[in-house]
Design brief:
With 395 residues, this protein is an alpha+beta fold. It has 13 helices and 14 strands. A hairpin with a 5-residue loop joins β13 and β14. α4 packs across α12 and α8 packs across α9. The termini are far apart.
Length: 395
């Protein structure tokens, strides 16, 4: 059991959410580097100095027509190629915000309700020891209060270097993933406590298909990606490739430091069908900024549905609150912001936006780094959303 728990902390965005959001309740480290005068570049350099291979960040602020951008490190370990401008990367659990937005659009259209049970749309799918789909609502899936167990420990490609090499191209179907998760239902301890599980959003993707008759990929494309003109964003389906310019991803699977020359195995190629709805989207810092801005300023959701998304509950032990596909994180300058961390085998990201949608900060790193990396990424988002060094308030 202890080995399983250690594995789970390294999987997909479970690590990103638990570690990064937990850090959000602690003090912010100082970011100091006299080499650069630009605060964003200093913070990007500070992340790179924690030992990751590459870092890229973009920030938007009131009164600016284009985002400020900073990069550090290289696109591939052992090379001298810089991080690509507009590079694409797997955004991990930031995908959950896309999925929640689609569900809430369907709610706004009257085609489903947040109080619908899982059993209504997926009869017989959620069942097992302590589980009953007729007692779990769509809201609880999106809010991580369903009690549904995590499927990721069953995915070999995410758990070890040998498993990755053997199964990185394997295709999973959503029903197969749900079945694997239900096999772990003996670990369910309560049906209402907040507990982060990627399975919740796999089930949400399945419900989207039942409601619309079309795939999760198609709905995300037609409802979000195309209307917003997110040209660097895609849902890859079963393709193992990151299209367009991109940096390589690395992970140690827990066998090394995850930094510098010990950054680990190149895991850039991966069939992410195991992360449908929960972590499969590929995007860029620029597109993520535009997506979150459109979400918070009301271009994607009507006021009632946006209010549902941003209505949060306590995430015990995290020091933050969680809504429907969005975390609410305290700002060091007062108030809070919305966003979501993400991690998928060597790509780690953090995206945040002020409550009024006027200021965004998105950063991603390649390779795992360590606790210092997570804290430095969180610090960048916090300081940029607080307007550090840019003559603006928190918003």
């Amino acid at each position: 059991m202890q080995v399983l728990r250690r594995r789970r902390r390294r999987l997909l965005t479970l690590t990103g959410l638990a570690a990064l959001l937990l850090a959000a309740s602690g003090g912010l480290p100082a970011v100091a580097d006299a080499q650069h005068t630009d605060p964003l570049q200093r913070q990007v350099d500070a992340i790179h100095d924690t030992g990751v291979v590459g870092v890229s960040a973009e920030v938007t602020a009131p009164g600016t027509r284009t985002g400020a951008v900073a990069r550090a490190g290289v696109a591939e370990k052992g090379s001298r190629r810089p991080m690509p401008p507009g590079g694409r990367f797997r955004i991990g659990s930031a995908t959950k915000t896309f999925t929640a937005a689609v569900v809430l659009q369907l709610v706004g259209e009257g085609r489903m309700s947040l109080e619908d049970t899982v059993e209504r749309w997926l009869p017989g799918v959620v069942a097992g020891s302590g589980l009953d789909g007729s007692r779990i609502t769509v809201r609880q899936l999106l809010q991580h209060t369903s009690g549904v167990p995590e499927v990721l420990p069953e995915i070999a490609a995410l758990n070890s270097a040998d498993g990755y090499r053997a199964e990185r191209f394997r295709t999973y179907t959503p029903p197969e993933l749900a079945g694997l998760a239900m096999q772990r239902s003996e670990e369910v301890t309560s049906d209402a406590a907040w507990s982060y599980s990627n399975t919740n959003y796999i089930l949400a993707a399945m419900i989207i298909r039942e409601v619309t008759g079309r795939s999760w990929d198609r709905e995300v494309e037609d409802r979000i990606i195309r209307p917003l003109g997110l040209s660097g964003t895609s849902t890859p389906g079963t393709s193992p490739f990151v299209p367009g310019p991109h940096a390589h991803a690395y992970t140690t699977f827990g066998a090394g430091t995850g930094t510098g020359t010990d950054a680990g195995v190149d895991v850039t190629r991966l069939n992410t069908s195991m992360a449908i709805g929960s972590g499969a989207v590929i995007s860029t810092t620029h597109d993520l900024s535009r997506f979150y801005a459109a979400l918070l300023d009301g271009r994607l959701l009507e006021p009632a549905e946006l209010a549902e998304m941003t209505s949060t509950v306590s995430a015990p032990g995290m020091g933050v609150r969680y809504g429907l596909g969005l975390g609410e994180i305290p700002l060091s300058c007062g108030g809070s912001y919305f966003g979501h961390p993400g991690e998928l085998l060597g790509y780690r990201t953090w995206a945040g936006i002020t409550r009024d949608g006027s200021r965004t900060a998105v950063v991603y790193a390649t390779s795992e780094g360590g606790p210092e990396t997570q804290q430095a990424m969180r610090t960048l988002v916090d300081q940029e959303l607080c307007g550090a060094g840019r003559g603006a308030g928190a918003g």
